[in-house]
Queue: 3 jobs
Job 1
Amino acid sequence: MAFVCSTCLASPPAQQTACAGYEAADLPLTASTFPVHKIGGAILFRAGMAVDADGAPNAYGPHNRGLDFTANAKNGGTFSSLARGPDGKPVIQRSGRFKGYYVSTTSLRQAGGNASAPATYVNAAKTPYFVLPPEFMQQFGVVLGDLAVVTNRRNGRSAFAIFADVGPPGRLGEGSIALAEALGLNASPRYGGTTDPSIIYLVFPGSGLGQGKLRTAKEIRSSASKLFRQWGSARRLQACSTPGSP
């Protein structure tokens, strides 16, 4: 259904134009329905941010020696964020700087890459990425590799990011270590992030290169900033995400 934000109705004509074109949608999650808004070809929502270490070569290790608790690499008792060998056990790096750590994976991976090589995946410590549940992808047509601008309303800091990991159903609001750092959050995967829904995610469906294509932080910033300018930049985002907006 069409939606016009109440903030815009009380704003000058220029701001009304910037905030025009809302379309509201409800995203049914496990415990509740989450409000999401379609604006000018982009998808906007507000949430907190859990910090994801997946893809970092030292994300997980035996005896919880990694950046995150090893238990967080599991889904229902089964390892879901680690490369596994033919025996089903997590692959351990046998050489290099992070010898002894598990090989942590992300949903986005380099085409043709060795499934047991850390370089095949998106490094959470170096690449700003965000995480979405499968139901979000299905409802809004977002695919791995799509781009976004993410903003921390508490301090005004923003960062451009790539959709690199599919999270568990029913969970919304998660980003990589590098994204949390860029937003001025505590970036510890164990104790950081925020539960305050002060993080604004503006996602551009169909904006990426798709599965199999990894991108550097510089490439993400260059491509996503161009999309953000075309969409209306910070002025439009401010008009559409101020308190009182949907």
Job 2
Amino acid sequence: MSSKSTVSAGKGKAAKGKQEKPKKPYADFPLFPHASGRWCKKIRGKQVYFGKWNDPDAALAKYLDEKDDLHAGRTPRVSRDGLTMRDLLNRFLTAKRHLVDTSELTHRTFADYHATCERLNDAFGPTRLVEDLASHDFEHLRAALSKTRGPVTLGNEIQRIRVVFKYADDAGLIDRAVRYEPTFKRPSKKVLRRAQQENGERMFEVRQIRKLLDVAPVQLRAMILLGINCGLGNNDCGSLLQKHIDLDAGWLDYPRPKTGIKRRCPLWKETVAAVRAAIDGRPAAKDDADADRVFLTRLGQPWTRDAIVSGDVGKAPKIAPQIDAIAQQFSKLLVDQGMNRRGLGFYALRHTFETIAGDSTDQVAVDHVMGHVDPSMAANYRHRIDDKRLKKVSEHVRKWLFPPEKKGGKKAKG
């Protein structure tokens, strides 16, 4: 694989002894022997490799086939023999990496694509010609993937795989589109509904949230309240900055990190008090860049971190994995309280807010608090939502969680 590869082709055994560099086959031979055991040429300030020492003719042929594109700064066109999986995956990842650099694609999405490409590389092999893939190859691949994935995760993986091969077709790298096995698609809605029923509803009841609030540590208690008060998810809380929250006025103005959609929500007095306590007891930030975060771990680090991709485009990327300490700590809390079950986690607070707030009958206001994309024509003409509507939605959820006391000092049943 050339130096531009971004998908590994396996590690070879280390040479026992140091080989002596060969001489050029003839004086005008355009390549030089590199210490790595390959023929090489420096092009546009970078060393490019074309083949092993023992086959200078093949290395020269590869150089002559690619030199025009390389000297022009272009990615070499597909080999005359056809598009290999290695070529496709590297080209696809390079294209996606350019989108990361222009902020058109998130680091996390690129990391998902990279993992998918690694799986395809392992499943089909780096030298397999893309046009040789047949329907039975995808039948076996789907069967293997379904052994370790639920319906939703399987559907997402299949979709990413189809995006990879669609890129090959759209970019004109293959003469005909890849033909999948008929069932190589997302699981049906029926299967998804059945799985959802088996896992149970992804929401909490009043007694559960009240119990969690009673026992949760200071910072996690504030996050739970933000989850049920404003529909904030894990990364929302982990990325929340103090500039996004006005505790004196009792408002949150916080575009969703995931989509950039504007979001505004009134804060309950319980939420304000909990967030104040979290900020007052917050440890010093380990990195000055995190000094404005509302929540920091005891080590002074962010509770969540998205995947981070680094390294030069065209080379194997360095990917720092995603971190979610909120999910970990909340899961421990659920286990301690006997509430742990599949499908129930911190993000279920967001599901709960959506479910209960929907009963307020103002779905437009609910979507605004949630930061949902509104594809309707009305959204193109709507430029703001009155705070009274947002307060009505927020208060509806608060009365569900903290029922007002009845006459005689007893609280209404929640």
Job 3
Amino acid sequence: MKRLFGIALACILLVVPALAANNSQTIQLAHAVQVGSTVLPAGDYKVSWTGSGDSVQVTLAKKGVATVTVPAKVVVQKNSNSGVTTSNHGGKEVLQVILLNNVNLIL
């Protein structure tokens, strides 16, 4: 029984990080964009999200830049390239959608 418990625990410890990795990817912002009330400068950002469906929290993080967390909706979709969709509001580029490998995050 102890051996079975040990094997199960080892499997769980190996699977949890792999599952967590599925909810984070890296994107590149070619130019500054507004996310919520924050303007993020161009650069590479780690995008991670928690939750599913219409109620997820998306976090964009880059070393040396304030981390931004915003609500979003997840749409499962296979994309050949990652990227972003922006729109121009009052002269500012506003982040609308983050396109990742297997999901779109609609802000």
